[in-house]
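Question (not urgent): is this output format expected?
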Amino acid sequence: MPVVAWAAPAGQGRPLAYWPPESGFFMPLSAADIIAQLATLVGPAAVIGAPEQMGNYLNEPRKRFHKGAAAIVLPASVSEVQAIVRWANEHGVGLIPQGGNTGLVGAQVPLRGDEVIISLTRLDTIRSVDPAAGTMTAEAGVILENAHKAAEAQGTIFPLWLASQGSARIGGLLSSNAGGVNVLTYGNARELTMGVEAVLADGRLYQGLNSLKKDNTGYDLKDLLVGAEGTLGIITAATLKLFPKPEDYETCLVNIVGPEAALTLFQLLRERLGGRLNAFEIVPALGLDMQLRHAMLDRDPTAGPSPGMR
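Got this back:
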């Protein structure tokens, strides 16, 4: 596979670039060239070039990163993702894959300001749900909450729950190996993924949408792609594990004197409940105070103060 190498002089953000492409170096394209060439690949309506229209894609939640982008491109199919990646590889253009833009470490927004954000939001089809096999195949742009609804409609669950599930998307969740509140029982996103489809750096398609649970053949490339933050390829779809939907849930809020007591309680519950223990979290008083102060909770749900948690 070709490797795109970038080199920058000390103190400068833009890469050194030379021509022809056969040498492994590239002439830099202007933003206007990038926008025009992307438009020929996916159509003008799928390319955002005006800075004033990029806000939703550049404004990451913590407001820590403030660089612009050369363009935003929104492919509508896997073949369009391949065409974009192939073009970027040929011209030495940096790509940043983006899902729901909910990440808190800035990996989904530009670092230098001359990159192209490739948004997977239009790849939002749930290709199949097989409750008998316990699998769902969903494209990278599927919103997590929609995956939940599709699974539950078949009497199953996809047990990855987190605060941003109404906007986070499958591709980003897998690329960051998200955990969520049920990680104790079901594991991180990697453990919930049976196979992936991904576009590699030269535009080739890795077709690994495996749904066979007993598969001991060859290398498990899925485990490399999940959690790689898009550095090894852009995930375009995944086969996910589904589980039977529980008939009911019981939630208990327990006051404790400190973290050590929480560990003791956790061990006791795990011994008594086994796999039925889905989630176990410590909620510090600071978190409750903040929610009460901003009217996110109607009242303090605890039975009393927990001095050791202040």
